[in-house]
C-alpha cells in the first residue's frame, strides 16, 4: 500500500460541487476521502474516525471554519487542518493559523495546490528570509536535500504574507533586510505565527545587538555569518526533535 492510500482525508464544505470534486479527485489519486457539508457532521466524523488531514471551508452555516477547527483540534490534538476560502485572508483565518492550521488555500485553486500540500504534511517546513538570493538558494538546496519543504522571501512583507498562508517549523531570518530590520520582522512574524522556531542571522557586527534582542524576545538563537553548515544542521535537527516531542526549549 503506498503512502497516499494510508492517508485519510476529510473534506468539509457546504458547496456541493466543490465537495464532490475534491472527494472524487483525491479519491482517484489514491487517498481515502470522506466528504461532509456541515460542521456538525464533521465533528461527528472526527469523533468516530481518525483523519490524517482535514480540509475545511471558512464560511459555513451554523459554525465558521475557525470555530470548527478549534473543536476538531480539541477532539484530535494531532489533526492537520488546511483552511480554504473564496474571500481571501482575514482575521479569522489568521487566528486559525495561529492556532496551528497547516495552510490556507485561496479559492478558486488548482487541485495540484491541494495535492502538493497533502504530500508535504509529514515534511518539515522552513522559511528562509534573506535578500541575498544566492545564500537563500544555497540554504534551500541544502534543506531540500534533507527532505524539507522550503520557501524563501527577500524582504519582511513577503515573509509575513507567506507565514499567514503556511505553518512553518523553522524560520531562518536575516537581520539586514530592505525596508525593515530583522528584529522588526521577527516581532511581526511572532504575532501571526507563534509556533515556528526562529534562528536570526547576521554578517554585520552592528546588527548583533538587535539579534541578541530578538533572542531575548524568544527567538531560538542567532548565528553570525559565515557560519558552519554542520552547526546549522545540528541546531535544526535539535529543533525538529523537540517539536516532535511536544515543545521547543531554547538553549541556555
From TrEMBL:
Any one Pfam family match given in the protein's UniProt record, by short name: Response_reg
One GO BP annotation of this record: phosphorelay signal transduction system
SUPFAM superfamilies the UniProt entry points to: CheY-like (SSF52172)
InterPro entries associated with the record: Bact_response_regulator, CheY-like_superfamily, Sig_transdc_resp-reg_receiver
Domain Response regulatory span(s) in chain numbering: 8-122, 125-240
Domain of life: Archaea
Keyword vocabulary terms for this entry: Phosphoprotein
Residues recorded as bearing 4-aspartylphosphate in the entry: 57, 174
Protein's recorded name: Response regulator
Organism: Candidatus Syntropharchaeum butanivorans
